[in-house]
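Please go through this protein, sequence plus structure tokens, and consider how the sequence yields the tokens. Keep your notes short.
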Amino acid sequence: MRITMAAVLMLAGCSDAVASQEQASAPAARQAARAARDGTAPATAFRTVEVVDRTGFGQPMIAARASVPADWRVEGGINWDDSTSCATNRMKFQWRAVAPDGVEALELMPGFGWQMPSAAIPMNPCPVAGIASARQFLDSVAQAMRPGARMIGYRDRQDLTAEARRSDRNGYRTEVGEMTLSYAVGGRPVEEQLMAVVSLSGAGGTAGYVSAYRAPAGQLDRARADRIRGSFKGNPEYVQAIGRRGMDAVNRFAAQQSAAISSWHNARMAEINAKGAADRAAIRARGNAETNAIYARTAASTAATNDRIHESNVRSIREETTWTNPAGQTVQGSIHGGARVLEMPDGSFTRTDDPYYNPAGSTEYSPD
């Protein structure tokens, strides 16, 4: 698991000039905070705020600090989704700072970790998505989080990429992308920049979070957005804590897999011994055929068309999948829940992991 909070540190370290400016303006930030409390803060004043994780460690922890305009309010923090076995996707940034007009805002949205279709490991619980660049990642995020928005621009942030790549390991490359969208909020046209630091390899990729800066159409203040983004300073103790939490999740999942494999192996060995030596060759042959069938199905599932891969990317971001019945009818739902989907005679649906649950008159849907 690549530590998702590292993205905060990448952006925070991308501009020495911004860091020096924030350090030099610390007294001004304190003055701005006092002015914000008594209602006399000028529009250009900045104050220091915190991004807090209130759910992941039994007590609140400060994940990062940032400098925002003094009259902006802050909302949310960091949450955790422990229902997914993919440790990288458990941490969810859900924080934003909002201007008094309720339109201009900077938001931190959840990131995403995935496996590439060409290198997917069936035992790896992280989703499979054909995302090979920062632009493809942001395109998928825009479709999932801003449905109906129109893309009006994209650029690779080369000014930030060189600094971010200092932490690259062998086989990894970092890309920093920025996509500009156009849509409406409450009937009012707005423009929004989505920015992400994406770590890519042949096996998959990770984006710690997505930064979204929004303003009324034609009023995007890119300098202010970069100043706020550049002011984020991660808490080293929090970075270490999420690293430990992530490794604990990985180790627990590995232990569960190992126990399941051992249980299956022991049961099979007992069956083989009971039947005797005469049946062993046949059982081994059948086991090999089953294994080959699994590999064949896995290979077939990764050979989907580009359109299907693109649709899968969006569904992976939303954590949804699709089931189809023998008549070609489909139903869509969350990936969290029972693996089997059955339609009851009265038209309702149910989900279960019980392989023997087959009510009379029910129709089972197969996962796509």
The chain is about 35% helix and 30% strand. The CA atoms of residues 48 and 67 lie 4 Å apart. The first helix runs from residue 6 to 12.
